[in-house]
Design goal:
Layout (H helix, E strand, L loop, with lengths): L2 H6 L3 H8 L3 H8 L3 H4 L2 H15 L4 H56 L3 H69 L3 E5 L3 E7 L5 E6 L3 E2 L6 E5 L2 E7 L2 E7 L3 E6 L2 E5 L1 H8 L5
Antiparallel strand pairs: 1-4, 1-6, 2-3, 2-5, 5-8, 6-7, 8-9
Length: 279
Amino acid sequence: MSDADKLKHLDPEEVFQKTYIPHKVFKKLIEQDFEGLGNRTKVFGLIKILEDRFDLDLSELKESAQNYFQTHQENHHTAFQEEIQSKNKFPVGLIIAAIVVFSGVLFWFASQKNGIQNSELKSMQTAFLDKNVTAQISTEKEIQQEETQKERNETFVGHQEENETKTAISETNASKNLEEKEQKLSLPTVTFIPKKKLWIGIMYLDNYKRKNYITSKPVEIDTSRDQLIMTGHGLFRVDIDGNITDYKERLKMRFLYRAGELEKIDKKTFDLYSKGHKW
């Protein structure tokens, strides 16, 4: 199954409840609309959050995002190099041409008008050439310094993006932990109290794993997880935060516990939620 199919199987509302990722942003991830999502930091941060919250491997999606942003960075870098090369070529050629022309004029003018000796003329030409070569070298150093500074800036931006990703994940985890703590504080205490020895079967709806008890003692269920509950008979009481309901049925009973609420259900509803998982 492709990563896009994995995400399509998720309920956008459930994604929002668990990760706070808006529906529109989640849709852009599925469609791999990386340009519409913004920068590299945000995209990889969102993918990491989805992997953590839903226990997914989204390697294909990360590879697609990496290729997208790498291509855009390479295009930007290539354009920058071409700009630098154009700066290098034009001034160097102009300087050489100016040197040749001016040297010739200087030689002619000096020999015709001033009668300067050949050795003195050569010294003047050498000084002129040294001055222009020095200027050329200085220009090349400035260009190299610009390239070095750009590389440093890119490295800094890379570290900054990495830190922003870690910060986004950390903030999301903190928000999730706070939400879980608040949820635990609001969860009820639900206890099944048998009147005689009772079989109780529990199927958790997050992974469909099952466990069961045969006991005459009270059984307190884990109210932090949605679950299906089946009993061997109906001779028991249910205590929900001190509110006791007394059952007096001889046959099996079925219950659904979800989002802090316990309700009695029929076999059809039980089979619908169990999705074919049998005892």
